[in-house]
Amino acid sequence: xxxxxAQSWLDDLPAAFHTYLNGRRLDEVECIVPDLxxxxxxxxxxxxxxxxxxxxxxxxxxxxxxxxxxxxEMDIENQWAESDMALxxxxxxxxxxxxxxxxxxxxxxxxxxxxxxxxxxxxxxxLKRVIALYAEKGWKPIVAPELEFYLTKPNIDPNEPIEPxxxxxxxxxxxxxxxxxxxxxxxxxxxxxxxxxxxxxxxxIDSVIQEDGAGQVEFNLTHGDPLWLADQVFYFxxxxxxxxxKNGMFATFMAKPMRDQxxxxxxxxxxxxxxxxxxxxxxxxxxxxxxxxxxxIGGTQKHMREVMPFIAPNVxxxxxxxxxxxxxxxxxxxxxxxxRATGLRVPNSGAQDRRLENRVIGVDANPYLAIAASLICGYxxxxxxxxxxxxxESELDEEQEARSYIPMTFDEALRIFEGAEExxxxxxxxxxxxxxxxxxxEMRLFHREISPWERQHLLLNV
Length: 462
Prior knowledge:
InterPro entries: Gln_synt_N_sf, Gln_synth/guanido_kin_cat_dom, Gln_synth_cat_dom, Gln_synth_gly_rich_site
Helix content: 25-40%
Protein name: Glutamine synthetase
Mean pLDDT: 91
Keywords: Ligase, Magnesium
Largest sheet: 8 strands, mixed
Organism: Microbulbifer harenosus
Shape: globular
Pfam family, one: Gln-synt_C
Number of helices: 14
């Protein structure tokens, strides 16, 4: 492809990208896809080798790998593992790579087989499948994610505990500083770099706050289309990690990186609008909550345990739910009005903004799969008219806790997921089998490890 031809599609890129380019020559194009864990995979190539009309190819076996890089053997009919996938660029996702030394462009690609059919196990396609189910009913889901994460000292030796970072004062944070502006200013250079990168990429941050933990920050994104918001979370995780590295820190999206600090969530606010009218179907003409809103809550309560492997997808995810030391994570799927003691919260809002906040999702989740899983729970509730429990007005009592518990280990979550027939049918049976196999192998690999705790307390004492 010649440079003049390349220029023709470059002209259609967003204004933010041309501002970033600032007359420089584009050097490289990154063709990326999110894997099962929400990490980017793909190919980078010189501009001269890229064309929006010419797909590139990757083996589908990238979806058969655990977080450790181990391959998982599958025994599914018509297994895809030996075939290539075609990566088809979604040019609406094209944006700058602000941390690159030379001007670079990154583009999220859709995945198809060689006949043009969507790859069922691609996370972006799983979310598209759920959005299509809503569309068949004349509905459009709307979401707004909130990302919590930690800035930390660089952790070079994985045998050593993770520690809070050193800020501009020269001190390492240890105490809880929720909503502190001073704490945000302490890490000002990193925050400034994140804003700088986001502006160059054409992304927008709604607000930033200091969360409970030492070095824990939260970014809130504006509400909108679930696919675009999942793309933004995917991009923001790259941006935040790179901004931290530029400033001599790590940024981690582990659910519970430090034992005595709170875990990190990805709270997701969810509403549904009528496609034709744009009206929020959770409110009636008088501004009252509708039956559909009640059923959405009921379905979320009914199915939340079944989708835990998507919203708490790692062994470490379940450490966030421990009730000891500084944990603000919900340990239930109860619901209530403006009640942060419940896993499902109805925030104060006007009728058009009526929504349900899912507070159980961990920030370590793949955003495409977590949003798809949360939305499919509510969808099944509306379709099947599932009634919710009574709203909790404060802390849940013992009976409510027992009725609305969430799995406290990854092993238990995987066992529950195995029998979730409605969820498997909605998300795709082959995909769910593959996902369960990959996560079960990760669980097996974890159980093989000997932890520092075991070496410290058992080596000479048993």
